[in-house]
Design a protein that fits this description.
7-stranded parallel β-barrel; 4-stranded antiparallel sheet; single chain; TIM Barrel; 3 domains; 545 residues; alpha/beta
């Protein structure tokens, strides 16, 4: 009977590994094909910046194009932006009253409050066509003295008014792709220019999925739109792309651009599957400094093996249905580490070999667990494995009866607690809480941690996780080397973190493997040095001698 059970377990494990290898191979091919990075800048930002610097906009755009910037973001116009561009004149109620008091407008003038005035007949036709497309209704027009007058209500004033034809022509002149950025309501124009690239999914309230079937969509990572509408975008996943940007408010707080911001752009591409980089210029910097900043971003991305061009369609990878896949991933992320810990407790042998076998088992567990949710929507973070914290907590709780029998637990509970033991317990509990809370990706970190991250990325390219190499792995090695079950229990967090690493599907699998291996190597090194010191101290020898 025992042999039959063992054979069944071996067959099941073999099937799981074959399945995981198949899905992982698809994922690796997806990452290899998905190497186009579209770098874009905001046209209105460029125009405003060049005007403030008295620099030729055309020359600036030409230089950006030679650096690798492939697209321009064109924002949808508003009543205010059209007035600033001298395309229209808008008369508010206060304006009408003021001009009539000054005698500029006669009391008989046909200009009423909330009126826009145009002199260009061709542009008036364009404005009419935009509004008709949006609402199905024509603007009410009055003509006098060669001008055209349109009464606007608050809803019209708070609406987008299309994209200026001259901006589209400017993008075409310098061979840029066009990225539309709608104002407030997401809408795809019926007519798109031949150099159209995608439309940014911003300020979304509702959208027509049918109109988006053949239109590429850029979703800014961690944006309200990504959180609110990611599920609705799953059917459109072949045309969805993650966008990374650094807001001007954040950049303007810096006196100069440092290497960490260049690294941040590359990290978004390499580790979070962001294949559109939306770069904002920094008003506080001079022209050459801004151009050097953009040039550095493009050069780092290109030197890392990516192609600076417009993105193509996403490869569609399917597998287990998403809901079933998440359940299986959760189940395996719990069962795998606990089973490995059970084997570790029962097996003998050298503690160093056991440490490395445990790390290998955790990496394989992570790969198998992630294979159940290896689908395109997970790579784009349109769907997510949301059991990350439970996958850290549940195996940790289950590991207690695996490591300790009832008599050992009873003795631990019956021990007299002194102040020193209480402090150690609270410190360990605090560390565990921090590890579990930080199990998800975080965007806001302390300056000290940011500095450490930059140093690790400079040294290793792929940064190992702190909870593994500074906490889990050293304690696990100490526990294995000294026979302390309590240290093994606490160090078990490092193994759970390895599994957790592979459940972030927007990170390429090779990055997750590299991160886990680097964490194990550095954690082993730190733990071995500590263990060496502990053993020397235990035998009363001169550590330095």
């Amino acid at each position: 009977m025992f042999k039959v059970k063992s054979a069944i377990i071996i067959i099941l494990l073999a099937v799981l590994l074959v399945w995981a290898a198949r899905q992982t191979y698809k994922r690796i091919k997806y990452d290899a094909r998905n190497n186009a990075v579209e770098v874009c800048v905001d046209l209105s930002g460029v125009q405003r910046y060049c005007q403030s610097m008295l620099y030729d906009t055309g020359n600036f755009l030409e230089r950006l194009r030679t650096m690798g910037v492939s697209s321009i973001v064109i924002s949808e116009e508003t009543i205010d932006s059209l007035e600033r561009a001298n395309k229209i004149v808008y008369f508010s109620g206060a304006d009408v009253t003021k001009y009539k008091m000054m005698g500029v407008l006669t009391p008989a003038a046909s200009i009423s409050p909330d009126t826009i005035v145009l002199s260009d007949a061709k542009f008036a036709e364009y404005i009419n066509s935009v509004w008709t497309e949006k609402t199905g209704k024509k603007l009410h027009e009055t003509r006098a003295w060669g001008y055209r007058f349109y009464k606007v209500n608050p809803a019209m004033k708070d609406s987008g008014w299309g994209y200026l034809p001259e901006n589209i022509s400017l993008a075409r002149e310098y061979d840029f792709g066009i990225i539309y950025k709608p104002y407030k309501k997401f809408r795809v124009p019926r007519s798109l220019p031949e150099n159209f690239s995608m439309i940014l999914f911003t300020d979304v309230q509702t959208f027509d999925a049918d109109r988006l079937q053949n239109v590429r969509i850029g979703v800014i990572e961690a944006s309200p739109e990504e959180r609110a509408f990611s599920g609705d975008l799953v059917p459109l996943k072949e045309n969805v792309f993650r966008v990374h940007t650094i807001e001007t408010a954040e950049l303007s707080r810096l006196p100069v651009i440092t290497g960490k911001f260049i690294n941040r752009w590359l990290r978004a591409v390499r580790e979070r599957n962001c294949k559109v980089l939306y770069i904002n210029l920094i008003d506080e910097l001079g022209v050459e400094e801004n151009l050097n900043y953009v040039r550095s971003v493009c050069a780092r991305v290109k030197d890392s093996g990516y192609s600076l061009t417009r993105t193509g369609r996403q490869s569609i990878i399917n597998g287990v249905p998403a809901s079933a896949g998440k359940f299986l991933a959760f189940l395996f992320s719990i069962a795998g580490p606990v089973a490995s810990l059970y084997w570790l407790r029962k097996s003998g042998g050298n503690y160093i070999l056991k440490f490395w076998l445990f790390c290998l088992a955790s990496i394989l567990t992570g790969i198998v667990a992630s294979s159940f949710i290896s689908r395109t929507e997970f790579f784009l973070k349109l769907d997510q494995f949301r059991g990350v914290k439970l996958a850290m907590i549940v195996p940790f709780i289950l590991s207690v009866p695996v490591l300790f029998n009832l008599d050992e637990l009873r003795k631990m509970l019956d021990k007299t607690v002194n102040f020193k033991s209480l402090l150690i317990f609270l410190a360990v509990l605090f560390c565990l809480a921090v590890v579990i809370v930080r199990s998800n990706n975080v965007r806001s970190i302390m300056d000290v941690e940011a500095l450490l991250r930059e140093g690790l990325e400079t040294a290793f390219i792929i940064r190992p996780r702190f909870k593994e190499f500074l906490f889990g792995h050293p304690l696990l090695l100490l526990g294995l080397g000294t026979g302390s079950k309590l240290l093994i229990l606490i160090g078990f967090i490092g193994q759970l973190s390895i599994v957790n690493t592979f459940l972030h599907l927007h990170t390429p699998v090779w990055v997750s493997v590299a991160r886990a291996v680097l964490g194990a190597i550095t954690g082993f090194t730190i733990g071995y040095l500590i263990l060496f010191v502990v053993k020397k101290c235990k035998h009363g020898r001169n550590i330095l001698g």
